[in-house]
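Item description
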Amino acid sequence: MPVTVKTSSQVSSAIKKMMTRAEAAVKQRNWDYAFQILREILLAEPGFNEARLMLREAQLDKIGRQASAARQLLATVTTAWAINVSGPMKIKKGDLANALDIGEKAMEADPTVLGTLKYICKAAEAAGLSDIAINALETATDYHPKNVPTLKQLASLYEQCKMGGKAVSIWQKIVALQPSNPEAQNKLKHATALAAMEQAEWEKEGDFRGKLKDAEEQDLLEIAKRGGVRDAETRVRVIQALVEELEKDPKNITNFRRLADLYHQNEDFDEAIDCYKRITELTQTKDPAIDSAITTVLQDKFNRQIQDLKDQLADHPENAEALQSALTDLEARRDESLLVRFAQRVEHYPNEPQFRLELGEVLLRADKLDEALEQFQHAQRSTHHASRAHQLMGTCFARKGIQDLAIEQFQQALSHRDRMRAGDLKAVLYDLSLAQETKGDKENALATLKELYGIDVSYKDVAQRIEKHYNA
């Protein structure tokens, strides 16, 4: 039985709050947490296409939108049972929310695997989610542009959804790949005729140019729903479309959020902050995710200004003294402003462990170790933030020269290794080995270095340190 498609205005306030947290996690590139929240949303509301498309964009962003044959092979092997056995069984039973979730979990391993994308399409079609089915096949053809069966499947789906112009484009690609295939030639002619009929019907219903403009605006708004726009020219057009849409509906919080994100991406920092503040005014509530977004924009604004000064310093060495002085002042203002803002966030939202963690990191950079420890101790109570908090507590104790406590905290961090990013895991192992070495525990220090060496032989000076141990 098809699921009910819902827009952001039709979901509950609890789901909206979860979406806000997911958006903040995506901006911070906290991929695993973003995936977790979005999948929870979609299990509750499988027809909430906006969340599913956000999840898809985040999955692609995590891999830098680059395909990898090795990663695809590994993902294909590790998800084979889910995609080929348990998932199809869920579809057959009509358990479509969980069937789709199986596909989304598999996409976390690699969102470019052809089999997974075709499974998502199948599950989405069973659920009546044609937009999601199309998105899956479009992604498949982006990363597998010469796979003719997939191209044919996408063309057929376009035709079913009365998207004749797009179907024509796909059949043209197929004909280019198989110029001597008479079936492809006939299908192209058929699709061209259907597209012409659709256009004729469109013109009968009203002014063609007006409809074309409306369609273009809808296309741009659809792009806005999908998240970041990498092409600068398109981004400007999407921003304009959202501005026009907000003139019609000035209380649309979702569009303000999308506009803020695009302004941020376009480095129009002040405009982005104004949009986020407008959301707060409309909702009349304190929202930690919006506060976090504003803080991120402020950080990026400072960093942009700092980078501009560094570029000037490189290009104009004759003005080095004045530019270096300006750069030092700006970096000091950035650190002071962010420390004040992070402290205010903790004061306003004392139960937000992410804010505690971020304040602690700023204090650690300022070498205010005891104040940083206090924040990390609060943050480590959160399961999601525990590994990072223990890691940074270990760093504080190591700097204070209390190696026993540093080792204990690093080991606590490693007890959460299943939740740790690869970079954090390597950093913790490296710092743990240093603390063990400083304490004089050479045996355990060597064992830790060996573990790190097995993960990444080129990490920092791990190879040289192991060699030094053996030569001692």
Observations:
- The chain is about 80% helix and 0% strand.
- The mean pLDDT is 86.
- The CA atoms of residues 369 and 396 lie 6 Å apart.
